[in-house]
Amino acid sequence: MSDELYRQKCTACRRDSPHVTGEEVARFKPELPDWELIEDVGIPKLDRAYKFRNFQQALDFTAAIGEMAESEGHHPKLVTEWGRVGVTWWTHKIRNLHQNDFIMAAKTDRVYQQHQEATTTA
């Protein structure tokens, strides 16, 4: 996993903040191979599902992502089910993708990796 995106911090967005360009998507997306670029109600988004052995692990992961999102000031759509958490990133203010979304997707992957390591050693 590359650290280029993971090490960055989110920047505050305004309604006139630029969305990512096609060149930026082409540069960032290879660092996030498990994420899908989707379009939902005309808005481009990054989407991924994470798998867990049970509901408690999924719930713990959801809480960790919530804490991370709050600390960065950027919040995803989270759907928690038994053995699965869906995470979707996009920038609400610009109704599009911003570099922040790619940063947060990378951070989400890192949290998942840490949760997987913790559950295999427990």
Q: Helix-strand pattern, N to C?
A: HEEHEEH
Radius of gyration of CA atoms, rounded to a whole number: 14 Å
Give the integer mean of the pLDDT values: 91
CATH architecture: 2-Layer Sandwich
Just give the CATH class. Alpha Beta
Structural class: alpha+beta
Report the CATH topology name.
Gyrase A, domain 2
Strand count, sense and closure of the main sheet?
Answer: 4 strands, antiparallel
Helix content: 25-40%
Total helices: the number is: 3
Which spans have pLDDT < 50 for at least 5 consecutive residues?
A: none
Q: How would you describe what is shown here?
A:
By secondary structure, this protein is α+β, with helices and mostly antiparallel strands. It has a single domain, classed as Gyrase A, domain 2. 39% of the residues lie in helices and 20% in strands. It contains three helices and four strands, in the order αββαββα. It has helices at 22-28, 55-72, 99-121; strands at residues 36-40, 43-51, 77-81, 84-89. The chain has a four-stranded antiparallel β-sheet with strand order 1-2-4-3, covered by helices on one side. Strand 1 and strand 2 (43-51) form a beta hairpin. Helix 2 runs antiparallel to helix 3 (99-121). It is globular and about 45 Å long. The two termini are 23 Å apart. The model has no long low-confidence stretch (mean pLDDT 91).
